[in-house]
Amino acid sequence: MARFDKIAKVYDGFFIQYYYFLAHREIISFLKKFFKKEFSVLDCACGTGKFLEKLNKMGMDFDLSGIDESKNMIKTAEKKRGNDIEFKLSRIEKIPFPDEKFDLLTIIDAFYYFKDKEMSISECNRVLKKRGYFFIFTPRYDNFFQKFLLGPLAGFSSKVFFFNEEKDSTHLSFEELKKLAEKNDFELVKKKKTFFNWLLLFKKND
């Protein structure tokens, strides 16, 4: 994730975070009814920790953690938001937390970057409590506009800003994501399809 190490210092800038401001607001609205007063959350590929910071400001007794494989993203997160949130440098395929620790695990706009997607979901299952929740926010590529217009634009942007590592990403369809989650002992409990994205919430089976 060399590209993210290089952009960590500017990742909280307006142009990137305006998109995430809208996305995070929609995600919190989607998940809000599932929150409890005492709730442990792990955000995977957390970047600089902005989503966790927003959860922290909700005034609930959340236990918040984030992992990311970019060293500079984690350094920035710890510097800006580390007082109340635990951050660790780690790949999702080997999450550095014990079994059944979290009530909710989130992956926001990052699942397509993970090389071993099945191992990633298996690790999510391992660290979630029984009946814990697993949330994915990911672009829709069953949408003509997204696939044939925004997709090439994102590829061009990645070459300019992210040093052409977008080619390593693999986007799954809703059905592919659902099948992979079910294979790893999750059941779909809520979904939302927007013009650009899927919001998918799964629950770990007993």
What features would you describe in this structure?
The chain has helices at residues 2-7, 14-31, 50-56, 71-81, 117-127, 144-161, 174-183, and strands spanning 38-44, 61-68, 85-89, 102-108, 128-139, 186-193, 197-204. It has 206 residues and is α/β, with parallel strands linked by helices. It is globular. Residues 153-165 have low confidence and may be disordered.
Number of helices: 7
Give, in order, the helices and strands.
HHEHEHEEHEHHEE
Radius of gyration: 16 Å
Mean pLDDT level = 86
Which strand order spans the largest sheet, edge to edge or round the barrel? 3-2-1-4-5-7-6
Name of the CATH superfamily: Vaccinia Virus protein VP39
Reported CATH architecture: 3-Layer(aba) Sandwich
Strand count, sense and closure of the main sheet?
A: 7 strands, mixed
DSSP, total strands: 7
**What is the CATH topology?**
Rossmann fold
Taking pLDDT < 50 over at least 5 consecutive residues as the criterion, the unreliable ranges are: 153-165
Shape: globular
In helices, the fraction of residues equals 25-40%
CATH class: Alpha Beta
Number of domains: 1
Indicate the proportion of strand residues. 25-35%
List keywords for this structure.
27% strand, alpha/beta, 7 helices, Rossmann fold
Describe what is shown at a glance.
With 206 residues, this protein is α/β, with parallel strands linked by helices. Helices cover 39% and strands 27% of the residues. Mean pLDDT is 86; it is low at 153-165.
List the helices and strands and how they pair.
Layout (H helix, E strand, L loop, with lengths): L1 H6 L6 H18 L6 E7 L5 H7 L4 E8 L2 H11 L3 E5 L12 E7 L8 H11 E12 L4 H18 L12 H10 L2 E8 L3 E8 L2
Parallel strand pairs: 1-2, 1-4, 2-3, 4-5
Antiparallel strand pairs: 5-7, 6-7
